[in-house]
Design a protein that fits this description.
The chain is α+β, with helices and mostly antiparallel strands. Helices cover 46% and strands 14% of the residues.
């Protein structure tokens, strides 16, 4: 994810991006979201995604714990 850091915090990313950033499977993304390890996704016009700002915060927490790629 070359350009992820340059995205504004209000941008929305989809499931494949979240999977790649954390190095986890789709079911794990959903499980972590349900358990509060990742932010809850938002739905807009039938599309589900995550706010970049919330993902950046979650990623920094997981990296500091050594849990992500």
């Amino acid at each position: 994810m070359k350009h992820f850091e340059s995205l504004p915090d209000c941008a929305i990313v989809r499931l494949p991006v979240v999977r790649e950033l954390f190095g986890i499977s789709s079911p794990t993304v959903w499980r972590w979201s349900k358990n509060g390890l990742l932010p809850s996704p938002i739905k807009m016009s039938g599309i589900t995604g995550w706010q970049v700002g919330a993902i950046k915060l979650a990623l920094s927490r997981h990296v500091s714990k050594g849990e992500a790629k």
